[in-house]
Amino acid sequence: MKLDICTNADLHCHSTVSDGTMEPEALAARAKANGVELWALTDHDEIGGQQRALEAALDQGMAYLTGCEISVTFAGKVVHIVGLGFDHRNQQMIDGLRATRGGRELRAREMAAGLAQVGIKGAYEGALHYVGNPEAISRTHFARFLVEAGHCSDVPEVFRRYLTEGKPGFVEHKWARLGDALRWIREAGGIAVIAHPARYGFTPTEEYALFTEFIGHGGRGVEVVTGSHTAAEAVKYADTALEFGLLASRGSDFHSPEESHTDLGRLPALPGRLEPVWQALEARVHQPA
Ligand code: AMP
Ligand code: MN
Ligand code: MN
Ligand code: MN
Q1: Residue 136 CA: which ligand is closest?
Q2: Whose CA is nearest to atom 2 of ligand 1?
Q3: Given this model, what pLDDT does residue 1 score?
Q4: Structure confidence by residue, pLDDT tens digits, 193-230
Q5: Phi, psi angle pair for 178, to nearest 5°
Q6: CB-CB neighbours of 177 under 10 Å
Q7: How far is the CA of 196 from the centre of ligand 3 (A)?
Q8: Which of 1, 94, 96, 270 has the fewest CB atoms below 10 angstroms from its CB?
Q9: For residue 270, what are the contacts with CB-CB under 8 A and spacing of at least 6?
Q10: Would you state the pLDDT for residue 189?
Q11: What residues does ligand 1 touch, defined as CB less than 6 Å away?
Q12: Nearest CA, atom 12, ligand 1
């Protein structure tokens, strides 16, 4: 298959291996049904689903790029870095991601303790009930439990009331360092992309620092069209990509048919003046027979 800017590429989504609700194979089928031509599964801090996703994509006749969304602490905030087209058997990357996930269980217990103080009991066990992979326990799993237990009517409300900075279930956490995450991706043969840059709430100065340091560490791309951006934000980050000479990526950030407002593959095209990250990764794309 020839890749160009019009390729329906969806290079950001989550399965039960992290905080999505669908198995990799079911996601592959859904992506195909929605017209995706080039797909990447990008679970948080975990590449244990890559072989399954790759095989499922090829079975569906879809091209595949390996993917992962790495949680990084930068300027006291969490930044997500999407790695694409790396060797998913690379030991340094496997070990680095395992260390990144390492603190999730303790953090989850502290989150549950914070929630217990405001009268929400059993949140750790409740959240665990939703996790396919216990090492991957995340705020999303807590949010699903709090909705189920009737504390809130939907997941965004849980985040607003309980799981964001200053709220009872929020626990400060140290994730991977930007330079480490970028080294793992680069040395495994992949390209690093800044995920949904509009979501961090950085000042212009902080954002400039993020992009500059990211490029200094060998980062090459930025998500422009994502389910996490408004149309205006996509325009803004198209300009940013051009300003910094970055490749552009596109991905729904799909987690669940019930929770996600952007479905797999149902995104606007990248603005034509940009260079898509998937063209730079052509040699790393797994093509169906
Ligand atoms: P964690 O890695 O445990 O901090 O959880 C982060 C995940 O929570 C993200 O990947 C999103 O899936 C989800 N999330 C973050 N903020 C919100 C929000 N405001 N509403 C719904 N989901 C969110
Ligand atoms: Mn998530
Ligand atoms: Mn993210
Ligand atoms: Mn994501």
Answers
A1: 1
A2: 138
A3: 81
A4: 999 999 999 999 999 999 999 999 999 999 999 999 99
A5: -50, -50
A6: 15
A7: 7
A8: 1
A9: 5, 224, 225, 238, 248, 250, 276
A10: 98
A11: 19, 44, 71, 138-140, 155-156, 159, 255
A12: 140
| C-alpha 203 – ligand 1 centre gap (Å) | 21
Q: Tell whether pTM > 0.90.
A: yes
Considering the chain, what is the average pLDDT of its residues? 97
3-state secondary structure the chain: CCCCCCCCEECCECCCCCCCCCCHHHHHHHHHHCCCCEECCCCECCCCCHHHHHHHHHHCCCEECCEEEEEEEECCEEEEEEEECCCCCCHHHHHHHHHHHCCHHHHHHHHHHHHHHCCCCCHHHHHHCCCCCHHHCCHHHHHHHHHHCCCCCCHHHHHHHHHCCCCCCCCCCCCEEHHHHHHHHHHCCCEEEECCHHHCCCCHHHHHHHHHHHHHCCCCEEEEEECCCCHHHHHHHHHHHHHHCCEEEEECCECCCCCCCCCCCCCCCCCCCCCEHHHHCHHHCECCC
**Best probe residue, ligand 1, of 68, 109, 139, 159 (max atoms within 8 Å of C-beta):** 139
- Confidence check: pLDDT of 132 > 80: no
pLDDT value at residue 2: 86
- In ligand 1, which atom is closest to the CA atom of 138? 3
Q: Separation of 166 CA from ligand 1 center, angstroms?
A: 15
